[in-house]
Amino acid sequence: MRDKEAGAPAAGTPAAGSPAAGSPPSAEQVNSARRKALGDFLRSARARVQPGTVGLPAGVRRRTPGLRREEVAQLCDISVTWYTWIEQGRDVSVSPSVWARLASVLGLARAERHYLFDLAECTDPEHGRGHAHPLPTGLAACVHSISAPAYILDRCWNVLARNDALLYLFDGWPDRDASPNLLRYIFQDPAARALVVDWEQRASRVVAEFRADAAAHADEPDVRGVLDDLLQSSAVFAHWWTRHTVVDREGGLREFLHPVSGVLRYQQITFRLATRPDCKLVMLLENADAAPS
């Protein structure tokens, strides 16, 4: 009786081309695994799509469920060979627009679409679009349950929710504005210059943060409206916008000169919302270490 197949590696011996025990995988092995996962995901998604949902006849000779590769390729306006290579996990170059068409044809849900672009290692060209609707139920209540000043901003920096602690800190804003927007408050409301310590420095940083958030959508009506308004009404905003500086909204020390409580210092913490990726939750936590003596 043969203990093992001829030519098979002995027990405990790494197969040819595999990393040695304990050694990390190479970059090519990681990329190969990622491409394979991408191909497997596309095949699974393709099998779920009924031909009728994309305007194709069901036919009578379909041996497998869902769409054929040829149909997906035709609907996405790419070659069958190219799409086959993608599903096979080959190293081919695919543009973001093609991934977007694939996501649309395959009817991917938001989480699935995010997973697709994550595996493809490119940015979704539709990221942040189509979110001009109210916050999901419960998010505003979450903000009110936070004891520290907190608020939610959309990509235009409109205030979608705030709590009473934030209302006190900003001395009645944003409730005194019909459509509160943090950028308009900072650059158009005289109260901001009195409240925000080192207003000039913060103003330059705010413009760079907003560019990082919204520059990719600058031609869309909601973002364009905010930009045009601020470029015309605020020379300071216009000056810093033309500098093309980009930074993340990282947080850090924030100081305010409150008309009643005097100097207040906070650490700003910012989170992206999983249910609304175009929005962020901002909290201002008391900075005990930096409290005035």
TrEMBL record:
Name of the protein in its database record: Helix-turn-helix domain-containing protein
Domain HTH cro/C1-type: 41-113
Family annotation (SMART domains): HTH_XRE
Bias (Low complexity) ranges: 7-27
A GO term for molecular function: DNA binding
Residue ranges crossing the lipid bilayer per the database entry: none
PANTHER family the record matches: BLL4672 PROTEIN (PTHR35010:SF2), BLL4672 PROTEIN-RELATED (PTHR35010)
Superkingdom, natural source: Bacteria
Region (Disordered): 1-33
One Pfam family recorded for the sequence: MLTR_LBD
Organism: Pollutimonas bauzanensis
